[in-house]
Design brief:
This is Putative PBS lyase HEAT-like repeat. By secondary structure, this protein is mostly helical. It has ten helices and two strands; from the N terminus they run E-E-H-H-H-H-H-H-H-H-H-H. Strands 1-2 form a two-stranded antiparallel sheet.
């Protein structure tokens, strides 16, 4: 166990599991990582989300969306929001809209709004306009960034990759 300020922050079993995860990643074992989304360790759940998104595909979106909606840890939900944005799939819009409107954490609402801007679909415009009224300044600012990207993509952008990079 590695200790910091007398706290156990990196248990040995986490390191062992991360090593196992690396082997499963090399084998592209999506089902293994789907199973890890239920692990008791929030660090493992965060990594599983990232790895599933890296593996890609529409089949991953429902699993990541479920984490975004239901995980008890706001950091894990934040990672799910970020990851859905990075996937840039239209199927990620509804879960991100729900999180932007309803997640109890401003941290998650902020990231979901930014992710909607990264996806760049005009379908998210109404949700982002409502986010301009959020109680959190960070969420309101994130909505401004996202709406700016939607407008840019709609009217000026000639390079979709650049627009995605500037969306959040």
């Amino acid at each position: 166990m590695i200790k910091s300020c007398d706290m156990e922050v990196i248990p040995t079993n986490r390191l062992e599991l991360l090593s196992e995860m690396e082997e499963k990643y090399e084998k592209k074992d999506k089902e293994y990582f789907v199973g890890l989304l239920n692990d008791k360790d929030f660090v493992i759940r965060c990594r599983a989300v990232c790895i599933l998104v890296d593996m890609g595909g529409e089949d991953v979106v429902p699993h990541v969306a479920n984490i975004l909606k239901n995980d008890s840890n706001e950091l894990v939900r934040h990672e799910a929001a970020f990851s859905l944005g990075q996937m840039c799939l239209r199927s990620g819009i509804k879960p991100l809209e729900d999180a932007t409107r309803n997640d109890p954490s401003l941290f998650v609402r902020h990231e979901a709004a930014v992710a909607l801007g990264v996806i760049g679909s005009q379908d998210a415009k109404e949700t982002l306009q409502k986010a301009l009224e959020d109680s959190s300044e960070q969420v309101r600012d994130s909505a401004v960034v996202a709406l700016s990207n939607l407008k840019f993509m709609e009217s000026l952008s000639k390079n979709e990759k650049f627009a995605k990079l500037t969306g959040g």
